[in-house]
Design brief:
Layout lengths: L2 H7 L4 H9 L2 H10 L4 H20 L2 H12 L7 E7 L2 E11 L7 E4 L2 E6 L6 E7 L2 E4 L1 E11 L3 H13 L2 E8 L2 E4 L5 E2 L2 E8 L3 H6 L4 E13 L2 E10 L5 E13 L2 E13 L3 E10 L1 H10 L6 E13 L2 E2 L1 H8 L2 E7 H8 L1
Parallel strand pairs: 1-14
Antiparallel strand pairs: 1-2, 2-7, 3-6, 3-9, 4-5, 4-8, 8-11, 9-10, 12-13, 13-16, 14-15, 14-17, 15-16, 17-18, 17-19
Helix pairs in contact: 1-2, 3-4, 4-5, 6-9
The chain binds 2-acetamido-2-deoxy-beta-D-glucopyranose (8 copies).
One 2-acetamido-2-deoxy-beta-D-glucopyranose (NAG) binds next to strand 4.
Keywords: Membrane, Transmembrane, Transmembrane helix
Pfam families: DUF3712
Length: 343
């Protein structure tokens, strides 16, 4: 929503607003371009524009407009991390320094508020996140580092399963902070934003080009703690932010028979490139048999990967475990590539 709303909400003063905007096409254009970035910057920047151009008309329009920013904004997850998972809570941290630029200036703040997080389909609240007050003066520092307590672990588990089985999922965030900007009257905001994120179909994901690579492979002979190989896995993060998961295990199968299992003792999905040590126990004779007698022309074998568990500091993390257990994929693995790694 943009210019048309300004016009709609301003009644008989419409022409004044339109003229003010028409005289500032570059600012308006720039404003719209910037809008695609961080919502809170644009929330603030919007207020500056309002101040500069159509202030007299829009006193009462601010909440409406600011709401619209937040509610329509495509959130940027850069710099967000989920760490220290526990069965009913985890830590959320985010650190961003925002400079407004573009000739916007002024100071103010967004008051602290409790953001309620819900499952969009059932509207059930599963967490209340205390957002601290955000002060701004020609920019803002957003520093959040606090625990998120879950009131409905099952809700998050369902969301996590959605993230691991389908391509997009969302969470509905609501809250009602006050926005204070300069000498303007306080605006009472009413945030109602569904944050959509991309999950992934694991089968599609593991078979997509470059999704993961084994970058080193060492056979353990004799076995160490029951593992007969140790490998380094490079993985593309399917989530848009950092997630510390802990100890994740998978069971492997070949043509429906149990092939073995793999353990990732310390998995943290990093925003771009994730690397992790993988320890595994596989039935080598079964692999070799498949390799020799399989019908593929190359060294390709199709290995079934089924999620088994996820724990952190030895404690099962139910919402991650649910997502991991939902993983039931088949990965096409080129054995020749890995034989080469051994030589
Ligand atoms: C958020 O909720 C907590 C607990 O319900 C309450 O103590 C706190 O005052 C609330 N904070 C705000 C800013 O409303
Ligand atoms: C994932 O993709 C595979 C192959 O494209 C498909 O067979 C499977 O049904 C999909 N799974 C989900 C949960 O959408
Ligand atoms: C997958 O997501 C699509 C929309 O993106 C939705 O229509 C469909 O019901 C979802 N499937 C599952 C199994 O959740
Ligand atoms: C696996 O390899 C990594 C790095 O190469 C090493 O730090 C780790 O101790 C190895 N683990 C075992 C069980 O060999
Ligand atoms: C895996 O290797 C391919 C080819 O070398 C590369 O394009 C891709 O980015 C790699 N993927 C990861 C996750 O490192
Ligand atoms: C699955 O893997 C776990 C460890 O990763 C192992 O304890 C369990 O026995 C495996 N299950 C099957 C059916 O192989
Ligand atoms: C797990 O990995 C993280 C970084 O990815 C590292 O900081 C941490 O020390 C590791 N923990 C263990 C127990 O190896
Ligand atoms: C991620 O990996 C790719 C390919 O290996 C590399 O080009 C890129 O610089 C890496 N990105 C980061 C942030 O390390």
């Amino acid at each position: 929503m943009s210019k048309s709303d300004l016009e709609d909400s301003s009644g008989s003063d419409t022409n004044v607003a339109t003229e003010a905007l028409a005289k500032k096409p570059t600012v308006w254009q720039r404003f719209k371009t910037h809008m695609k970035k961080w919502w809170w910057v644009y929330l603030i920047a919007f207020c500056c524009i309002v101040l500069v151009t159509v202030l007299p008309l829009l006193y009462v329009g601010i909440p409406h407009f600011a709401n619209d920013y937040i509610n329509k904004y495509q959130f940027d997850y850069d710099g967000i991390a989920i760490t220290n998972p526990r069965p009913t809570s985890f830590r959320v941290s985010m650190s961003k320094k925002i400079s407004m630029g573009g000739g916007f200036s002024g100071s103010g703040h967004l008051t602290a508020f409790n953001a309620s997080i819900r499952v969009p389909s059932s509207n059930e609240e599963f967490a209340l996140f205390p957002v601290p007050q955000i002060d701004f003066k020609n920019g803002a520092d957003i520093n959040i580092d606090q625990d998120l307590d879950l009131s409905c672990v099952d809700c998050l588990s369902k969301l996590a399963v959605a993230a691991a089985t389908n391509e997009s999922f969302g969470a509905l965030v609501t809250g009602d902070p006050d926005l204070k900007f300069g000498a303007l009257p306080t605006a009472h905001l009413n945030i109602h934003k569904t944050m959509n994120m991309n999950g992934y179909n694991v089968t599609d994901f593991v078979n997509s080009q470059g999704a993961f690579n084994i970058t080193s492979l060492e056979l353990l002979n004799p076995t160490v703690d029951g593992f007969n190989f140790n490998a380094t896995l490079a993985l593309r993060n399917p989530t848009p932010f950092t997630v510390e998961m802990g100890h994740v295990t998978f069971n492997l199968s070949l043509a429906g028979s149990n092939l073995g299992y793999v353990d990732i003792p310390n998995l943290t999905l990093q925003q771009e490139n994730t690397t992790a040590i993988v320890l595994g126990n596989v039935d080598e004779s079964m692999l070799i048999q498949e390799f020799v007698w399989g019908d593929g022309d190359s060294g390709d074998v199709t290995i079934g990967v089924k999620g088994h568990s996820c724990a952190y500091n030895g404690v099962e993390i139910p919402y991650f475990a649910a997502a991991i257990k939902a993983v039931d994929a088949s990965a096409i693995v080129d054995l020749l590539k890995y034989v080469k790694l051994l030589t």
